Amino acid sequence: MRLYDPEEEEPCSLHAYGFAFSIAPDRAAKENFSGGDQYVHLPTANPDPPLEGVWVAEPVSLVEYLRLSFAWAGFPGYSIRPAHVPLPPFLERLGSRLLEF
Question: What is the spatial distance between Cα 99 and Cα 90, in angstroms, rounded to a whole number?
C-alpha cells in the first residue's frame, strides 16, 4: 500500500515503508565509541512500540524502558550490573525517593 501526501504527486516512501525514529544513543555511543541509536519504527498503530537497540533487556517496549530508566534514576544500566559492583551513594539516595509508575 502506498500512501500519498496531498501536496506531493509522488508516493511518500517514509509513510509507505516507515522509518526509524531515534530515541537515544546506544550503549557504545554513550561510552564514546562509534555506535548506533535506540529507536522505534514509525509509523505504527502500537501505542507502546518495541524499542530496538537497547542492551539492557531486549525485547522491551518504550514504556517498559522508560519505567526501568526512572526506577534507576536515569541510569538503567545499573539494573544489570554484576553483584560486586556497588551502587554510587547518590543513586541509592535518589532511587529510594522515586515512585513507581
Answer: 16
Q: pTM of this prediction? A: 0.66
* Residue whose C-alpha cell is 551502587: 87
Report whether pLDDT(21) > 60: yes
> 42-45, long-range: CB within 8 Å, 24+ apart, which pairs?
42/18, 43/15, 43/18, 44/18
pLDDT in tens, 33-60: 767 778 888 888 888 998 888 877 668 8
Locus of grid cell 511518500:
12
- Residue 14 has which C-alpha cell? 517514509
